[in-house]
Specification:
With about 425 residues, the protein is α/β, with parallel strands linked by helices. The protein is about 25% helix and about 25% strand. The chain contains twelve helices and 22 strands.
């Protein structure tokens, strides 16, 4: 079993010097290693369908990369449907290349879904009703809340009665009747209980799915295990046992096939699993401050660039990038790492609840770079213009060649939709 390793000093990403990347593209900068994404896709080769939850990292180049490697895509908004189209996905096929999964239809998305015949995974009775009124006769899938959930944070828990997600498991029968009323054929089920959960909790979903599948009956053609696969964010953490997880779901699928007398497609819907480890946020240390007993490394990146620590105390390993390409070891100090924002919560080394923590990091100097690891999921996609900071650039490294896949935002971009008073 592999263990995660994050060196205290780092010189290159995917064979490219980090100092050179920063010089060429500026900081803060998101950098992705295409080879890591491809390897994570290969990890899931046993599954019939790998469907990427693009909300994790929806850059068009990333979507095109996963499409070229046979991955289908999940969309949760009108914008994500249009992103998938722009990245080369077709909207028709079996299995459907793009599936819209949500708990509500906003009016624009419903119009697009009907106009372009986009496959829909309904997460509420009202979605069934609203789609059925304007597009009867279609096939749909249902996202079921099995009554329990789990995640690395309560904010990433998507199951149980405190979660807004999915159709409550006790309402499945009534939703099947509602679909019948509108001539909608329920041909698939989907369950997702949370992001960053563990194998023990993920395994419970298969049992709940099997029970729900028998309620739907022989017309069921597909089941989706959802996402939530954890990745190792900390030094020494082990990877999830994917073969064991697949065997669990495949055994359940085989029992359904025997009961129904036909093939049942088995899908998985990874988001963070495909992209988290591929991504790095590169920032420059702009100040080093001593505040009583505390030493602060202050970066030119803040929670406007990477919100996960302030949102739910997410841990990101860090490395210092020496200005000179040397292997000389440096003394390690306990430091607090923060950003430039006018906000006390702009701290990368914090745990859930806003409690600031120290991090042992090599001695560094102003002007050197610091890298935050595992920033490829829920990083750039959650970035904001808070304090009127510009959105960072993004670079994809493929076969040793860096390619700019999103330009750094400019002031003109920042205010393009705004207008002065007359």
């Amino acid at each position: 079993m592999q263990h995660a390793q994050f060196p205290p000093l780092l010189h290159a990403i995917a064979g490219v010097e980090i100092n050179e990347l920063a010089h060429r593209y500026g900081t803060p900068l998101y950098v992705y290693d295409a080879a890591t994404i491809v390897q994570r896709i290969r990890d899931l080769a046993d599954w019939d369908v790998v469907r990427y939850a693009q909300k994790a990292c929806s850059n068009l180049a990333v979507l095109e990369l996963v499409r070229r490697h046979g991955v289908l895509v999940d969309a949760v908004s009108e914008g994500e449907i249009r992103r998938a189209i722009a990245a080369g996905y077709s909207l028709q096929g079996d299995p459907p290349p793009v599936v819209f999964t949500a708990d509500v239809f906003d009016r624009g998305t419903l119009d697009l879904v009907v106009e372009r015949n986009v496959a829909v995974n309904c997460g509420s009775p009202d979605m069934i009703e609203q789609l059925g009124r304007v597009a009867p006769g279609r096939e749909i899938t249902l996202r079921i809340n099995p009554g329990f959930g789990h995640g690395h944070s309560q904010k990433t828990n998507t199951g149980g009665q405190q979660s807004k997600h999915g159709i409550w498991h006790e309402q499945l029968e009534s939703c099947l009747r509602l679909a019948d009323h509108h001539g909608l054929a329920v041909t698939g089920l989907h369950m997702h209980i949370g992001s960053g959960t563990d194998l023990e909790h993920l395994a419970k979903v298969a049992d709940a799915m099997e029970q729900a599948a028998h309620s739907v009956g022989r017309r069921l053609c597909s089941v989706s295990a959802g996402g939530g696969l954890p990745v190792p964010y900390r030094e020494g953490e082990q990877r999830v046992d994917l073969p064991a997880y697949f065997r669990l779901w495949n055994a359940m699928r085989e029992r359904l096939q025997q009961a129904f007398g036909h093939a049942v497609r088995l899908e998985i819907e990874p988001g963070r699993y495909l992209t988290a480890e591929s991504g790095y946020l590169v920032a420059e240390i702009r100040a080093i401050k001593q505040m009583g007993a505390n030493t602060f490394y202050l970066l030119d990146a803040g929670f406007n660039d990477l919100a996960r620590p302030i949102l739910y105390g997410a841990y990101h390993a860090m490395s210092v990038v020496p200005q000179q390409n040397t292997t000389r070891q440096r003394p390690v100090h306990d430091v607090i790492v923060g950003g430039p924002l006018c906000e006390s919560g702009d701290i990368f080394t914090q745990r859930e609840g806003g409690f600031v923590e120290h991090r042992p990091l090599p001695e560094a100097h102003v002007g050197e770079l610091l890298v935050l690891h595992c920033a490829g999921a829920y990083g750039s996609v959650m970035a904001s213009n808070y304090n009127s900071h510009y959105l960072p650039a993004e670079v994809l490294i493929d076969d040793g060649r860096p390619r700019l896949i999103r330009r750094r935002q400019s002031f003109e971009h920042l205010v393009a939709l705004e207008q002065n008073l007359d």
